[in-house]
Write a structure and sequence with these properties.
The complex is a heterodimer of chains A (171) and B (215). Chain A has 171 residues and is of the alpha+beta class. In chain A, a hairpin with a 6-residue loop joins strand 7 and strand 8. The longest helix of chain A is centred in the first third of the chain and has 17 residues. Chain A is elongated and about 75 Å long. Chain A starts with 12 loop residues before the first helix and ends with a strand. About 6% of the residues of chain A have low confidence. In chain B, 54% of the residues lie in helices and 0% in strands. Chain B contains nine helices and no strands. Chain B is globular, with a radius of gyration of 18 Å. The N terminus of chain B is likely disordered. The chains are: A alpha+beta (171), B mainly alpha (215). At the A-B interface, helix 1 and helix 2 of A face helix 2, helix 3, helix 6, helix 7 and helix 9 of B.
Chain lengths: 171, 215
């Protein structure tokens, strides 16, 4: 490396321009792995909630048909304290818009009165939505954005015990 | 995790569409990280996700710049974030969170490199060092001007490459603090240009293939 004598001088706009271009070079040559940020958030959430991570029991490839004829994906998760089954189906698009209406998620928890939270991340800002299940452990989310998501389930509405967290799935 | 304003790697002020860098909002990466960290400690739990979005690109390049493989760098960055959760209270000043994270990643990267070096009996302590020289496919990702820049950057010392690589993901007022966190000598960069950037500029200025900003 060549050494140059003399004072380097204060940082100026040309320096800023070079560093901006250098940032773009590194972003292209060595981008942050696509899943790293979500993996970090997931592991931080597990730590913060002292959550148990549930096991994925059935792969989303298991597509079945609902009574109305819509196709949906059914997935089960199993933890030591509770189990969760979710069925994901496409929402009907409104006639006057081309926006993706997202998906409907029907949830069944093995204990009644549980709180289910769905956390979605993707291109849109991360979103958290919660529902309290009925005494049969059933609750529904509508118009959930597509993309990576995971579920957090607290056994009671008071959230006074450690939750169970599912792996991330693609809605 | 909370709703980050975006998932991009842009630091503050780098993109016009970034609401966080508006005139009213915090301006530098340090400011924005401090704001998210303060909000998180004040009970806005989703702000920890904002902090992760803000700092992970810089931390990734901190680890990779120390020669770690991509999987090792992922481990190091993830570990550093989990360590932050264990040290929330020991970081007194919210503005210190950026340097705390950079320092943690630097130390953890060094530790990982040392373990890997021991495993592979590399006395240089740089096992798992990855050759970041781009192959033909990677080279094709760069434009003409970027290739010229890259060629000159590769001629810098490893420490200079590491320094410029990391601070490229921050904002000007943050440079000196980040350089300090990377254990670079005082005056490496900010408020003065420092030796690394001066050498790079001198090289570019003498290269007929590089035009524009230095004339």
């Amino acid at each position: 490396m060549t050494e140059h004598r003399g004072e380097p001088g204060p940082l100026d706009d040309s320096d800023a321009q070079i560093l901006t271009e250098l940032r773009e070079v590194y972003r292209r040559l060595d981008p942050v792995p696509a899943t790293l940020v979500d993996d970090i958030k997931y592991s931080m959430t597990v730590r913060l909630l002292e959550a148990e991570v549930a096991e994925l029991m059935r792969m989303p490839a298991a597509q079945v048909r609902s009574e109305s004829g819509d196709r949906f994906d059914s997935i089960s998760f199993s933890g030591s304290r509770l189990s969760l089954m979710v069925s994901v189906s496409a929402e009907a698009a409104a006639a006057d818009t081309t926006d993706d209406p997202g998906v409907r998620i029907d949830c069944w928890v093995s204990v009644g009165g549980a709180v289910v939270q769905v956390r979605t991340s993707g291109e849109a800002p991360d979103v958290e939505r919660s529902q309290v299940c009925d005494e049969n452990g059933r609750c529904v989310f509508t118009q959930v954005a597509r993309g990576p998501a995971h579920f957090i389930v607290w056994p009671t509405a008071q959230k006074d015990s450690a939750p169970t967290m599912t792996p991330t799935i693609d809605l | 995790m909370g709703p980050p304003p975006h998932q991009s790697e842009e630091p503050a002020g780098a993109s016009s569409g970034d609401a966080e860098s508006s005139d009213e909002g915090p301006r530098t990466l340090t400011d924005r990280a401090a704001a998210a960290f303060t909000a998180y400690r004040d009970g806005q739990t989703q702000q920890i996700g904002v902090l992760v979005d803000l700092l992970t690109p810089l931390l990734w390049h901190t680890a990779r710049g120390q020669g770690l493989s991509a999987p090792a760098a992922e481990d190091v960055v993830q570990t550093a974030w989990l360590k932050l959760l264990d040290h929330l209270e020991s970081i007194g000043e919210p503005r210190a969170v950026l340097s705390w994270m950079v320092t943690t990643v630097r130390r953890e990267s060094w530790r990982q490199a040392k373990v890997a070096a021991r495993d592979s009996a590399d006395l240089e302590g740089r096992a798992e060092v990855v050759d970041t020289e781009p192959g033909p496919e990677t080279w094709a990702l760069l434009g003409e001007r970027q290739r010229v820049l890259w060629r000159h950057v590769r001629q810098l010392s490893e420490r200079c490459q590491h320094l410029l690589r990391v601070i490229a993901f921050a904002d000007r007022p943050d440079y000196a603090t980040i350089a300090d966190s990377l254990k670079m000598p005082v005056g490496s960069i900010g408020p003065t240009r420092g030796r690394c950037l001066k050498t790079l500029r001198t090289g570019l200025a003498g290269d007929p293939e590089w035009d524009g900003v230095l004339t």
